[in-house]
Backbone:
């Protein structure tokens, strides 16, 4: 006769464990384990096989039983909101590529990542599954695409995609310490080493946070004149570049936030004033932890051109790319907002460098590669 001694219970538990895992994998309801398989590939067979879910390491056991349906951001965000906000060592930089196209500048990023020690960075790709990715993501980007959803301008879907990127990166690696959002038209403006040292030394995020920008009221009221109330009053509303670098603490703050995001996630009534990805992050950081961020973006962009009324920044052409352009981008000064520690102008004097720049058209890749080793990726 076996009595239910602790030892017996322990053995029973061990015996049951493989069964439990088996049932988790085969059960028809979607569990976190199923989520590791490939819902995108299953749904859209035209999407490259490179598209698959990330999170190779198993999630923490206490959360393993939570259900996670494909497309269910709620569970993903909830899991990610439980991570340790302190990164483990050695710290890594997470590069979050948000795209709806193949990455035309990927060969330049390959050179950049080739300069790096593999254990100091991670790459994550969010790729709208409605599009073809030809050529498929390869090299450093192969297998780095996780479950993505449609993402388009003038809707909250771009900011939802950025939140999804943060959640995946938080769960994937506890050493991810800084999270940089990158677009397909972005280039690195410094060597990997320079960027790594600069970012991992910083205790703060870099989020452009601007107050009283032209058109701010229209943006705030784009969902209806009282739709943002009471959580986001107009005087708390901020505008800034979509491209930020967040600390792990702020990445966790973002994925844990439901109250403020519920406001920004509403459908806009006015499409031409609907830029949640440029409003949500600056507003959230301003409201929750302005001193934890330098109120400027590290991604250079040029609005000083004849076509600025189009609402698009200048797109550099191949003929413009050369050491002089890179030098002038590197020498530009950041634009600081009014929030955060940088409101103190004596701190502002100690200026920060631009680490990335946009926008570069796909045909810039050849001239960029020509100057990469000698100029672009050299300090
Ligand atoms: C980057 O830093 C690492 C470690 O400090 C060093 O081994 C490597 O040579 C550096 N790479 C470049 C391109 O400077
Ligand atoms: C945002 O809105 C979409 C569409 O209504 C919804 O499916 C999604 O769950 C919402 N996301 C969050 C985090 O509330
Ligand atoms: C804007 O561009 C013009 C023409 O290229 C230049 O003269 C001017 O200095 C630029 N202004 C700023 C603020 O960069
Ligand atoms: C601004 O920063 C400097 C250097 O950190 C500090 O000495 C000074 O007291 C600060 N001034 C204000 C108004 O906070
Ligand atoms: C740049 O450096 C990389 C790696 O060292 C090398 O493979 C490549 O051929 C170089 N490119 C040029 C244009 O010199």
Residues:
């Amino acid at each position: 006769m076996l009595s239910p001694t602790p030892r017996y219970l322990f053995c029973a538990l061990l015996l049951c464990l493989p069964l439990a895992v088996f049932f988790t994998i085969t059960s028809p309801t979607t569990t976190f384990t199923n989520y590791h398989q490939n819902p995108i590939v299953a749904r859209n067979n035209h999407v490259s096989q490179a598209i698959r879910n990330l999170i190779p390491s198993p999630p923490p056991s206490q959360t393993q039983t939570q259900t996670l349906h494909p497309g269910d951001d709620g569970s993903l965000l909830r899991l990610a909101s439980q991570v340790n906000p302190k990164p483990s060592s050695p710290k890594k930089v997470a590069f979050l590529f948000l795209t709806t196209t193949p990455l035309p500048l990927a060969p330049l990023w390959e050179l950049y990542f080739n300069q790096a020690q593999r254990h100091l960075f991670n790459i994550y790709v969010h790729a709208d599954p409605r599009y073809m990715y030809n050529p498929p993501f390869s090299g450093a980007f192969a297998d780095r695409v996780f479950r993505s959803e449609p993402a388009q301008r003038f809707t909250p879907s771009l900011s939802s995609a950025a939140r999804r990127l943060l959640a995946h990166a938080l769960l994937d690696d506890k050493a991810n310490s800084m999270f940089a959002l990158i677009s397909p038209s972005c280039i690195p403006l410094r060597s990997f080493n320079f960027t790594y040292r600069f970012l991992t030394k910083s205790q703060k995020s870099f989020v452009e946070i601007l107050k009283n920008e032209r058109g701010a009221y229209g943006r705030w009221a784009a969902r209806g004149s009282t739709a943002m109330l009471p959580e986001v009053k107009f005087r708390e509303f901020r505008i800034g570049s979509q491209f930020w670098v967040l600390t792990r603490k702020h990445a966790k703050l973002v994925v844990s936030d439901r109250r403020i995001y519920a406001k920004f996630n509403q459908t806009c009534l006015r499409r031409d004033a609907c830029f949640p990805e440029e409003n949500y992050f600056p507003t959230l950081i301003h409201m929750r932890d302005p001193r934890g961020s330098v109120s400027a973006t590290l991604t250079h962009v040029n609005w000083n051109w004849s076509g600025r009324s189009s609402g698009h920044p200048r797109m550099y052409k191949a003929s413009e790319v050369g050491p002089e352009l890179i030098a002038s981008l590197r020498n530009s000064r950041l634009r600081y907002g009014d929030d955060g520690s940088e409101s103190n102008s004596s701190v502002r004097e100690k200026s920060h460098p631009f680490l990335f720049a946009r926008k570069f058209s796909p045909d810039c890749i050849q001239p960029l590669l020509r100057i990469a080793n000698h100029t672009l990726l050299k300090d």
Notes: Residues 1-67 have pLDDT under 50 and may be disordered.
